[in-house]
Amino acid sequence: MSAQEERNGLTPPTALYDRALHLLRESPEAGPPRRGYSLPEKPVTGEDPLSREKASNAIREALSPLPDDPAVLHRRFERLGIQDRHRHLIKSTVVGLPLPAEQEDAARALGRQLIRTGTTAATVTTGIALLGRLGEPEDVPHLSVLGLFRDLTGPAVNALDTLDRPSAAVVWLTVYARRDELRPLVHALWAGNRQALRPELVALPVSPRILSSAVARRIAEASQLPDLLDRHPSDTDLLARAGRLLVRMGCSRDDPADLLAYQDALSVYDSVVGRAGLLPTTLDNAAMLLSLALGLSSGTGVLLDWLPGRREALLESLGQLLAEPGWADAGATANETDQRQRVDWIRRTGRKPFKRPATPDKFRIEVVTGDPADRDPVETRVLIDGRPVVPAVFGRGPAHSPEYLLDDGRLRATEEPREVQLAEAYCTEGCCGALYVTIRRDAGQVVWENWRQTMPGSREPASELSIYRFDARAYDVEIARAESDCSWSWRARTIARLIKAGLIEEPDLLSQWDASRGWISSGFDDPDTAEVTFWYVPGLASGRPERADSPLQFRWVIPDDGTPPETQAANALRRLAEEDPKSYARVCGGSRERAEELGFPWPDSA
Nearest to residue 271, comparing CAs of 246, 299, 295, 302? Predict the structure, then answer.
């Protein structure tokens, strides 16, 4: 053994906490890097990892009883084969560990020693988890530093959330907020530069591309938004930014649970709505206030822990303000396409959240379109006892569109039970699940029962939901009202709905061309277009399809030409009847090989 090797063998490994401090000292001005620091690399042992069950049992054995000396725990982990890869199991085991009151002081002391002197992710995670249960304010700085290791960020933030929400949010943003546009604000937060905080927050871009619901919540927590608003009561730029953060937190396309997790939500709502009269009557501010109202009337905002009557009072205040001439005319002279779309949205939607429901709140449906600037989906919000069902029990994606739930009659009740998917995760059901309910008619009642949440790979049981019974006559009236109410729709969306209805009524319009109907709606990137997609399989019309498992998907984009939607839809259906749509639609899906085989160009962006 060389002298250098001997020295390395005798030198104890550096504590992870000390290593993080060293890394911070190396770049005091720049601060921590986005994505945080990497843990020290360890040589691969080549040993087979423990199975999940064996690892769980080994962790419980190592923690029973809790040792007084961190070195003892380290030796137990080594003997039992517990490694850094088991840190998630370590956290869950410590969370469920029985800790009698007389052992809490010793467990807290052990946790503190582990986070300050631990040299492995396994032992440090144990300390973080113990302090997540038993920590005190003095532990916040150490947890914050350890949270800069991206493999420890999750456990550290969870622990900090119980001790100091602003500190938890700063660590979360430092590691997870990776957009360049967010870095100046994040740097000010990490450096504790309160003087720079307000201007950076006001300058922050608020598009959904940059500001997810989670990022919006953590920014509000880290900046201690209620205090900031109190210190600047006349700052309308800050007030508008606070309102926009609330809107993003409750966005159904992301995770509306972020709004429910934001502990200061009620205070910020009070500040924004209470001072809304100070805001300039701009199109941006009108859209922000209307978005808040939609959330308070039928969205996630309903689910917050309001004092009796407070939510209704805020809604009434917003309704009165937005009815004033200056606000009602906001953006009336807009020239840009995206601005005109927002003006049209406000015109269609502006009074919807302030109307009293014609039916009792036992069962109500609200079709809601969000701000076109955010490209939010059109939702069919189902409210039971005044509470929106999907964000209350699912929260991983928006309620389905009215085309899916209403136009196709899926919510109608028959004596034959029918399972209906109310919502699907914003990714896919195969990734993060969906929400189902079974609907049936039982004499004079309609029953919603057998609720089911799918969550692939989850070990957690789905929460059990109640059986709901509605008066059948009132239910039918509400379904009929919702199905016939198209006031939410805009021109291109109406064109698409009429084309879809025509193709359902006359499927031969497509099948004669060896095609079958696909997705039909307004364009996502350009809401002023209708998009018709269809699948092509040669021989489909004759009943002898060729390679039905390899269809080509085509998209036909129909710009709104300003004529009545009924006329444009009729013209589109007539063209489908007379001309092969493959001659004017473009390939948008399938495989390149199949497209080239059939003589169709493959799009560069597919």
Answer: 246
Query: Rounded to whole angstroms, how far apart are CA atoms 324 and 461?
Result: 49
**pTM > 0.85:** yes
The secondary structure element, H or E, covering residue 135 is: none
In angstroms, rounded to a whole number, what is the distance separating the alpha carbons of residues 249 and 239?
16
- Segment 460-470 shows an average pLDDT of 76
DSSP category for residue 434:
E
20 contacts: CB under 8 Å, gap ≥ 6: 37, 145, 146, 148, 149
> Residues with Cβ < 8 Å from 305, sequence gap 6 or more?
266
User: Mind listing the pLDDT tens digit for each residue in 50-86?
Assistant: 788 888 999 999 999 999 999 999 999 999 999 988 9
Pairing verdict, β 529-536 and 552-559: antiparallel
User: What is the SS3 assignment for 459?
Assistant: coil
Nearest to 352 by CA among 485, 255, 528: 485
- Are 530 and 492 a contacting pair, CB within 8 Å? yes
CA-CA-CA-CA dihedral for 174, 179, 181, 186, to nearest 10: 0
CB distance 368 to 398 below 8 Å: no
